[in-house]
Amino acid sequence: MSAFVLRDPEGPPAVAAAAAAARNRSRLELFMAAVLFGLVAVLTRRAALGGFGAGQLATLRFSVGALASVAYFAARKGSFVGARRMPLVVRGLAGGVAVVLYFVSLALIPAGEATLLNNLYPVLTTVLAIFTLGERPTIHLAGALALTTVGVVLVLGGDGLHMGFGWGELAGLLSSLFGAVAVAAIRAARLPGGDRPAANTVTVFFALTMGGLIVAWPFALQAWPTSGPLWGLALGAAFASLGAQLLMTHALGFLAIPEASIWQQLAPVMSFLWGAVLLAEPVSGATMAGVATAGLGVVYGAVLGRRSKQSL
Length: 312
What we know:
The protein is mainly α and 312 residues long. The chain has one domain (24-144, 162-261). The protein is built from twelve helices and no strands. The protein has helices at residues 12-50, 54-75, 85-108, 111-118, 121-132, 139-156, 167-189, 201-216, 228-251, 257-264, 266-279, 285-304. Helix 2 (54-75) runs antiparallel to helix 3, helix 3 (85-108) runs antiparallel to helix 4 (111-118) and helix 3 (85-108) packs across helix 8 (201-216).
């Protein structure tokens, strides 16, 4: 008799292949989120210059997200997952504060400076994840994050970015700190723990909208603009943010923070590219070098920075 072994098609090799496919999809989602976050920065800056207050823009953004979330929950009964509450509370409040502070920064200082300060959050999140989630970057991931950060500085400083220190700069720095806490909370909420399942993407996003509205609405009580084109810019930023947040939140269920942080560094690069396309902003040699450097950092991290252990 010939011996043979029946292999379970859903066994470890199939599980590993499915996990690898999920991580690859998540990398694409983070790239798409960066494209949308870059568009949000440009549209928000234009709306703020036209007369929208930072609190109004944040309130509009969170209101659009909350309505979309409620519509999703109504259409799909049982889709609200009762996950661990503390990460959702932290995600909502910290994320809301981060968004409002970023919009304040965009209203007070040039977009490049505000975006550069805000985008310290991937670096801060990586450090925070070491102590809160036990997710340590490999040497290649740390190198890739450093490379993309250098690229971001070159992109946003390509035309001679001059940093000062005032309320706008302080708001940008604080937005990066609260943003780091919020992203770490997303990752924590997307992982199962104790007797609670992992929260799904829309549940985590809904927490952001509720926390954000609590933080933002007191700053939105002044007279609102009435210009149709200006409202178009503000709503465009809100819907672009909706897509970006959902993509990022979903991806953080499959990629550890050290690698996700590399992809998130593409957002300010995309912000500059959107500005060049939509606003005909000039492109310098240093800026193009920064785009190339950031892109090289992402490729380096994606190819050589694979972690030996990833969580679904």
